[in-house]
Design brief:
Nuclear Transport Factor 2, Chain: A, Glucose Permease (Domain IIA), five-stranded antiparallel beta sheet, 27% helix, 34% strand, elongated, binds zinc ion
Length: 432
């Protein structure tokens, strides 16, 4: 009898494997060719299998990280109690947390959209290791669990914001406010801009179509890139009918910040009490017998006696609204400083160079010279200050004094100004 030898056995093994591989291939191609809906049915039925579900749950439970974070934003009707009760914690831990929150004075009022962040250590019995509650746009209070104790220590912290400098510029088409809003400038910044320029500009009348402005200000951005607050204006330039009014933020002493023009002069300007040098106050504001008309009349200005030709200065920055004959006042100049203040200078012998209606003048600029024109008994300046349309006593005017930087402060200001100018060109180059 012929026996299988070893080589024959080997041949049979190869044949067996070939058949096996073929069967597998046929099986997989048939599964692959089955319709999509059949496949999803198959998947669904597997998921419906309770045993399988249980397995999945067990798998995900095992995959739960040890540490997790939960963020909650408060809604209308929430209380601290309801928020804490919503956490998956045991009752004693909820009570501990609630007691800590209720003890905190800065958390007395729960507001809508207040952010809560809880950190859990899921391996512990008392899970919460730390939690934070917002107390405002910029601040939050953090509670950290003391090691091996069920008490939390609280600390007020500043939120992690990024400060960003923003540059905006535009031509004013209808109103400054609308043009600024169209650019996406926060209304707080627009109000501050108007306040800063309020010493020089009457926003109701001085802004014309095609005037323009540039501004650099701070914005605070949170981790979600949302603007949460605005900071300070760093620089601004208002171009009114080809006059540039610039302002630079500058810390002239530690923690003393003010805005200065390009010449280091504070933009917070007062009106001069005496817009003339070397004069003698000859008649003060109030009731007096008129030297020419003879009867008692309110003197609604201040008179300064001075030789004819003595220069008269603009007592503040502003716009000339009149430079001409004022009847009894003779040659007079009227300046509008802002929406609140106007000044009048009367009896001039002549007007300063270039002084005419509509021109913008700087504080201290010569607008005319002492004379005795109109109803006047001798060379003097009659000076009036009008506040909200009412003539007031210029000698009792209380306004912040306009500071001019000098010496070392001025040098430092020039450095700071150059830095701001460089910053401005960098920000502009990013836009273009
Ligand atoms: Zn007078």
């Amino acid at each position: 009898m012929k026996l299988f030898n070893i080589s024959t056995f080997k041949n049979y093994t190869i044949f067996f494997w070939l058949v096996f591989i073929s069967i597998i291939a046929i099986f997989f191609s048939s599964v692959y060719n089955s319709s999509k809906s059949e496949k999803s049915k198959l998947l669904k039925s597997s998921l419906d299998n309770i045993y399988f579900k249980k397995t999945l749950k067990e798998i995900t439970n095992n995959l739960n990280p040890r540490f997790s974070t939960l963020v909650y934003i408060s809604k209308a009707g929430d209380t601290y109690q309801s928020i804490i009760n919503g956490l998956k914690l045991n009752k004693s831990e909820k009570n501990i947390i609630l007691n800590h929150v209720l003890k905190e004075k800065s958390l007395k009022i729960l507001r809508i959209n207040q952010k809560f962040t809880f950190k859990f250590d899921n391996l512990l019995n008392q899970k919460v290791t730390e939690f934070k509650i917002e107390t405002g746009k910029k601040n939050e209070i953090i509670f950290v669990k003391a090691v091996d104790q069920n008490i939390f220590r609280s600390k007020k912290i500043k939120k992690n914001f990024k400060k960003k400098l923003v540059y905006k510029e535009t031509v004013i088409t209808n109103s400054l406010y609308n043009s600024a809003i169209d650019l996406g400038i926060n209304p707080n910044i627009i109000l501050e801009f108007a306040r800063l320029y309020g010493f020089q500009v009457d926003f109701q009348r001085d802004i014309w179509k095609n005037d323009s402005f540039q501004i650099i200000y701070e914005e605070f951005i949170n981790e979600n890139k949302v603007i949460v607050d605005t900071g300070e204006i760093i620089f601004a330039s208002l171009n009114l009918q080809n006059t540039d009014l610039q302002l630079y933020k500058y810390e002239y002493e530690k923690n003393k910040i003010d805005y200065f023009d390009e010449n280091g002069k504070s933009i917070k300007k007062t009106l001069m009490k005496t817009p003339i040098n070397g004069a003698r106050l000859s008649s003060s504001f109030g009731k007096r017998k008129h030297p020419i008309l003879g009867y008692t009349k309110m003197h609604l200005g201040t008179d300064f006696a001075a030789p004819t030709g003595t220069p008269i200065m603009a007592s503040g920055d502003g716009k000339v609204t009149k430079a001409g004959w004022c009847g009894g006042g003779g040659n007079c100049v009227k300046i509008k400083h802002n929406s609140k203040y106007q000044t009048v200078y009367a009896h001039m012998s002549k007007f300063g160079r270039g002084i005419k209606k509509g021109v913008r003048v700087k504080q201290g600029q010569i607008i005319g010279y002492v004379g005795s024109t109109g109803l006047s008994t001798g060379p003097h300046l009659h000076y009036e200050v009008i506040e909200n349309g009412r003539k007031i006593n210029s000698q009792k005017l209380k306004l912040p004094s306009g500071k001019t930087l000098k010496g070392e402060q001025r040098k430092q200001f020039e450095v700071s100004k150059i830095k701001i100018d460089v910053l401005k060109s960098n920000l502009i180059s990013k836009i273009n």
